[in-house]
Amino acid sequence: MPLIDNECYLLDREEFNSVHDFIRKEDEPLTIGTLTLEKGQEIQVGIDSLFASHIGIFGNTGSGKSYTLAKIYYELFKKYKDQPNSS
Ligand SMILES: Nc1ncnc2c1ncn2[C@@H]1O[C@H](COP(=O)(O)OP(=O)(O)OP(=O)(O)O)[C@@H](O)[C@H]1O
Ligand SMILES: [Mg+2]
Questions:
Q1: What's the 61 CA to ligand 1 centre distance in angstroms?
Q2: Are residues 41 and 20 in contact, defined by beta-carbon separation less than 8 angstroms?
Q3: pTM for the whole thing?
Q4: Does the C-beta of 62 come closer than 6 Å to ligand 1?
Q5: What's the pLDDT band for 17 if we cut at 50, 70, 90?
Q6: CA distance 74 to 72
Q7: Residue at 29 is within a domain
Q8: Torsions phi, psi of 32, nearest 5?
């Protein structure tokens, strides 16, 4: 929580990207959207981390939980739909 008299820093592009990087190096990225207020900043999640574990999406009524879940599966199926061995 920022307080009066705290120092603040402007992040460079690399630092800003690393704040929004949720993927382990060996994982496969899945792009689920971009930040509303930061054009071009993609948000990616790691496929292995996400689908091999439990998922919780929290938010107020109407905040987009169902939409987010549908989007995640849409992007997953789109990415692997042409792979015959995917199950
Ligand atoms: N990222 C988004 N971009 C555009 N529209 C969105 C986005 N997320 C949600 N919406 C729209 O907002 C509305 C509410 O979204 P959604 O139904 O996913 O909310 P919810 O959190 O699941 O609500 P509830 O708690 O009632 O189940 C829908 O009309 C949906 O299309
Ligand atoms: Mg819902």
A1: 8
A2: yes
A3: 0.80
A4: yes
A5: confident
A6: 6
A7: yes
A8: -110, -5
Give me the pLDDT at residue 86, please.
Answer: 55
Query: 19: CA distance to ligand 1 center in Å?
Result: 25
Residue matched to tokens 């792979």: 83
63: number of Cβ within 10 Å: 11
User: 33 pairs with which residues across the strands?
Assistant: 43
Q: What is the mean pLDDT of residues 48-62?
A: 93
Domain total in the chain = 1
3 in a structural domain: no
Q: Which long-range contacts (CB under 8 A, 24 or more apart) does 72-81 make?
A: 72/30, 72/32, 72/45, 75/30, 75/31, 75/32, 76/30, 76/47, 76/51, 79/30
Domain that holds residue 41: 13-80
